[in-house]
């Protein structure tokens, strides 16, 4: 009788595990689609910025070629007071560690602490403890610039207690999406 009860309990746990696995797979697919959409948007933005830069360069060349002079009665002014902007802003924190351009960041709180993760042209993902102003995690594995990072909550079922484990997801120009284990700094398989 005890053996039958244990067998039923094992089958129940297997069903629950399979249901949770299916839910996690669905969540991963949703995240993949989100990352693909964000990467597409990022690439479109880069292309648009490049086109705008080319247009500006062409306009500047045209102005030089035309060599015109504005008459003294023409009033044209387009200025931005950077000093006014600076006086109303202040630097709060600086995190040093990346060796190239940072393309993306995300913010999260867990375990009563605040964190930022960042992705960079240097192919790394880093996690920073905001309260201590320190880098606490470094994820290596991408072979090209990291363009999107995101904290994701993931629940594991251990001994019938739900524990929240943060995961960092990243996508890069190497055409990969990676899921990083916050505790071990390794990738999920």
Automatic annotation (TrEMBL):
Q: Which keywords does this Swiss-Prot/TrEMBL entry list?
A: Repeat, WD repeat
Q: Which InterPro entries match?
A: WD40/YVTN_repeat-like_dom_sf, WD40_repeat_CS, WD40_repeat_dom_sf, WD40_rpt
Q: Pfam families from the entry?
A: WD40 (PF00400)
Q: WD repeats located where?
A: 95-138
Stated name of the protein:
Uncharacterized protein
- Which residue windows does the record flag with biased composition (Acidic residues)? 51-62
Respond yes or no to whether keyword Ribosomal protein is given for this record. no
Entry-linked Gene3D superfamilies: YVTN repeat-like/Quinoprotein amine dehydrogenase
Q: Which PROSITE patterns match?
A: WD_REPEATS_1, WD_REPEATS_2, WD_REPEATS_REGION
Q: Which SMART domains match?
A: WD40 (SM00320)
Q: Which superkingdom?
A: Eukaryota
Q: Which GO terms describe its cellular component?
A: transferase complex
The UniProt annotation puts the region (Disordered) at 48-68
């Amino acid at each position: 009788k005890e053996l039958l009860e244990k067998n039923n309990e094992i089958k129940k746990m297997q069903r629950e595990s399979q249901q949770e696995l299916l839910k996690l797979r669905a969540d991963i697919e949703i995240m993949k689609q989100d990352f693909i959409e964000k990467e597409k948007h990022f690439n479109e933005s880069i292309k648009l910025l490049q086109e705008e830069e080319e247009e500006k360069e062409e306009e500047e060349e045209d102005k030089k070629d035309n060599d015109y002079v504005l008459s003294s009665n023409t009033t044209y002014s387009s200025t931005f007071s950077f000093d006014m902007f600076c006086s109303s802003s202040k630097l709060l924190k600086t995190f040093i560690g990346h060796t190239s351009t940072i393309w993306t960041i995300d913010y999260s709180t867990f375990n009563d602490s605040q964190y930022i993760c960042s992705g960079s042209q240097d192919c790394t993902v880093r996690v920073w403890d905001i309260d201590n102003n320190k880098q606490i995690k470094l994820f290596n594995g991408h072979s090209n610039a990291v363009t999107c990072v995101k904290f994701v909550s993931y629940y594991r079922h251990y001994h019938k207690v739900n524990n929240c484990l943060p995961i960092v997801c990243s996508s890069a120009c190497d055409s990969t999406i990676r899921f990083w284990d916050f505790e071990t700094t390794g990738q999920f398989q």
